[in-house]
Amino acid sequence: MNAFLITIGDEILIGQVVNTNAAYIGEKLSELGVDVIGSSVLPDDENAIRNEFERAFNNSDLVLVTGGLGPTHDDVTRKVIVDFFDTELVMNQDVLNDIKKLFESRGRQLTKINEEQALVPKIAVPIRNSRGTAPGIWIEKENKIFIAMPGVPYEMHLMMESFVIPKLKDLMGDSKKIVLRKNLLTTGLPESHLYERLGDLKELLGEVKMAFLPNQFGVRLRITVEDDNEESAKSRIEAIEQKIRTKIGKYIYGKDDETLESVVAKLLTDRGLTLAVAESCTGGYVAHRLTNISGSSKFLERGVVAYSNAAKVELLKVDEDVISKYGAVSIEVARQMAEGVKSISGTDIGLSVTGIMGPTGATPDKPVGLVYIGICDDTICTAKEFRFGDDRHLNKDRASQAALDMIRRNLLGIPYDD
Fold first, then answer.
1. Which segments constitute the MoaB/Mog domain (predicted)?
2. Domains, the chain, ordered by start
């Protein structure tokens, strides 16, 4: 089975909203073994939508549309569907009851325009929506499937999980191919260097596919296996993972949806260790990421933003003479910041970050993107130099990632030799 995705909305075309719907649906369909052969984004224009419906329906087994099902004047998708399939709208009592319950639960008065959202194409099966007022639409015609869902992501996600995916699984039956994916999350090494260290990819992977997907935090390696048998697919993907780990294992911090902060949190919690963080250039971002983790109070004792030199001296007991001699952005100051925050907090580990985020503040010897990260525990007190780019916000992301990776490596006994 192949599929074509259509996203409708002026807000996406003009860049006000990022098209996460297509990415989500594409991933879910691919997991089912459905080949996504194309995707388009359309304005809220009836002619453009109808023309794309015709093209997609003629050239694919499955058409999946999001957007334009709301109650306002610019929501024209349902009208075009009725015209395209030469049908009519009928009131669906189940959908109307859903809408009434939703309004009652929110203590709001039901309006006529919302009642009209219970009108669905006569030939369609409605996809119930417990998170909003617009139902989805499922139409089967000419041995093809046409699906329309709201553009609101959390409404669409529920429809996919509760209705669309299970129904597609039933229809595909045993004929569907098994597609398994695993994402290995790396940090600390650029895409090109990872590529070099992995060596001959054809020899490494065989018929297995792998994509390099870089972002500001590192590179995600997406491994994809297609097979007729699920156990065989699992075995093949695990074998490839182990081969990859033998080559670049120390750069792999997690899998799939894990974050580096969640990995660090688990390591600290499992070991019963506490952490204090002293930040200058990242302005509390490392602590922010750690406190995104539920239960962070178990391991994070405090975070100190010591932005000025005076704050470093007063709060962290950094030696003024060291700052005068080496500068606030130096390996010596980073080491003393880590030692100082550990000392004043009484934690097992102290972590520090100091650097030049840019675009100002650089000198010939200390360019934008220069960052020093220090770590101090009961056995070592050290710091490492990093050089990132010239974008302030990306530098904060990268510095926070490098700082969290310093903790991960420290806890796992992985040397920071590059």
1. 4-170
2. 2-175 (3.40.980.10), 178-255 (3.30.70.2860), 268-412 (3.90.950.20)
